[in-house]
Give the backbone structure.
Amino acid sequence: MNYELVVGLECHVQLGTKTKLFCGCGTDGFGAPPNSRVCPVCTGQPGVLPVLNKKAVELAFIAGKALGCTLREESIFARKNYFYPDLPKAYQISQYEEPFAEWGKLGDIGIRRVHLEEDAGKLLHAVGSEQLDCSYVDFNRGGIPLIEIVTQPDIRSSQQAYDYLVALKEVIVYAGVSRADMEKGELRCDANVSVRPAGQKEFGTRAEVKNLNSFKNVKDAIDHEFARQVELIESGGKVVQETRLWDAETMKTRSMRSKEEAHDYRYFPDPDLVPLKADPDWVTKITAGIELPQARRARFISEYQLSSYDAGVLVASKELSDNFDAAAALGANTATLAKLMLNTADFTAIDPKLLAELVALVPGTISLNQAKELYADVRSSGKSPKALVAERGLAQVSDEGAVLEWVKQAVAANPKAVADVKAGKTQAVGAIVGTVMKLSKGKANAALVNKLIKETIAA
């Protein structure tokens, strides 16, 4: 029997605020000493009250609009009740029946909802250590503002899931919502995976896979879970609804716990927080001027006459495409700029003024290849490209008399190449150009070299 894969993704994105969602503690706790970014509010001490972070709401609304969602005029915070050591209040403030954003789309994937919530702390397990087996809890992460983005079950392959995550990260970063650094837990993903016989309308029983800390892990876990569920069904077993963990070393999932239903959490409106209102004028103001990846790609193609491929590579990095924009605004030739930035080993942005200055040296003063070699040095040293060219004696020789002497020697040294060029084999000119560059130690102006070779052979 043929089976169809059905996947829905739940992604948690840490909002780029300086402080937590309901208190003034810093969000810079990653790598900091444990429990150094905590206060009575985020550790759930008796008598404290949450105060909503306006910046977090702003970033959340921007994300909702960037994902094509409809913002509710009014949304409600709810208490999600469960006990776990990293959740000191024994409930998480989240949104349930009335999230702030719904019914968006990213590519072919529907977005069911986006809601605001606070993060939990982090447990560190010391199993097998010299001390007694135990767990430590770090509350630095507790209370950090998150949005959870829940897709429709529209994904039909692991590659489609991977592509969605790449696109989602692009949108989030371009909208200025988050850096989405997965290594720091700023973007986390859970996958709900089920299978069904091809052609069947009803969904199969799903398993939620957690512990997916890279796009590759998401792809691999979905592939494994599809194979596991199909094998289970084919052998007469039954898929149960559960939460499973992904083990990247064994490339397998393992059961963690039975999957909770919404009623298990006993959601109810948080009595300490008033409804959240989406004022249309404020939403328009905060979302004005945001350029998303798709719009930037289209602009780079039309405004800078870049190919679709080149525009796509540049726009894949917001930092790099911002750098391109800034250098172009300073007058850099965009065709040369694209060749330089797309063919440099050190694929990192540099001061746009220095970048524009470097581009202006091509091809009159230095060759494109020389510019590529200088790119990393300009970025790391912050020195003027003109100063580096002078310091290293890289300036091209454009004196026609001097270049002509090298050309004459190269023509005399390559009689076969000359004969091939005269016979119409134009690619043979490369051997002559190579000899000129060797004689000139790479300093001869390439355009002038080609011009003089043609004139000399034709004479």
